[in-house]
Amino acid sequence: MAADQFKKLQTYLDSQVLGQSSLTRNILIALLADGHLLVEGPPGLAKTRAVNALAKGVEGDFHRIQFTPDLLPADLTGTDIYRPEDGSFVFQQGPLFHNLILADEINRAPAKVQSALLEAMAERQITVGNKTYTLPQLFLVMATQNPIEQEGTYPLPEAQLDRFLMHLELDYPSAETELAILRLNRNEALDIKAEPAPNISQQDIFAARQACLSIHLAESLEHYLVQIIMATRKPGALDPDLAKWIEYGASPRATIALDRCARAHAWLSGRDFVGPDDIQAVVHNVLRHRVLLSYDAEAEGVSTNQVLHRILELVPVP
């Protein structure tokens, strides 16, 4: 069963990335929903390790790209290399032609580089000169941002943020987890064999995506999902405070993302139907980067998470 394979993959990821069960779960949701992740958190929280562990558990290759201010689009896409022996040009593929990409500190690269990554994420292709090259069918980008250091960064525009399926927020692990991390690191240094990684083929992943799309979503829950999105666009109909706090609501792309993620969440939980809990479980990660707050909200210290929590309180559950 494909569901059993993904349960084993979840167990493997949790054994490799301790104390970040939300991260590992949402990586699998993104994999099943065919989307990309934006992860924000302090350094050293195993973001690179998580994608690397995923690459070991599925049939796919992994590449990490460190974004810096001097990065060029060709450093991502590849470039035409001149061959003097016959006077021809040969295209040399860049790191975007891998299946799993970690775009580390994506906001440190200038706009042209971000634009090249945006085309790859949105269109699953890259353009070099007058030629377009198709990327692998299995293609997932996990981009990171460091919330501590903002000097020398290029904030991502709203249109690019909207291309990310989910925006995750990570925090430091507990003392107990920190101790487990210490022991895991020591065992790896001693070359003590850990739990073997599963090997899920790309065809199994594509089949699981179809299974997620096929599970039942009641019409009443479709309306509930849409009403959550509409509440971000016309918040005054629910609460005057929401109208004061929200500057711009979520796009139709958010509706699609919420549907796909809720389905993947239900499928990973072993159900063949979507419930209200599945929608509520993913709504913060799906909408956190898509709902733009006003200056009034910032002045009052209101966060996007608080606004979304308020919306869930006010929108009636069928």
List key phrases describing it.
Rossmann fold; 15% strand; two-stranded antiparallel ribbon; 318 residues; 14 helices; 11 strands; globular; 48% helix; alpha/beta; 2 domains; Helicase, Ruva Protein, domain 3; five-stranded parallel beta sheet
Describe the structure.
With about 325 residues, the protein is of the alpha/beta class. The chain folds into two domains: about 1-190, 3-Layer(aba) Sandwich (Rossmann fold), CATH 3.40.50; about 215-315, Helicase, Ruva Protein, domain 3 (Orthogonal Bundle). The chain has 14 helices and eleven strands. It has helices at about 1-15, 20-35, 45-55, 75, 110-125, 160, 175-190, 200-215, 220-235, 240-245, 250-270, 275-285, 295-300, 305-315; strands at about 35-40, 60-65, 80-85, 90-95, 100-105, 125-130, 130-135, 140-145, 165-170, 245-250, 290-295. The strands form four sheets. Strands 2-5-8-1-9 form a five-stranded parallel sheet. A two-stranded antiparallel ribbon has the order 3-4. Strands 6-7 form a two-stranded antiparallel sheet. A hairpin with a 4-residue loop joins strand 3 (about 80-85) and strand 4 (about 90-95). The model has no long low-confidence stretch (mean pLDDT about 90).
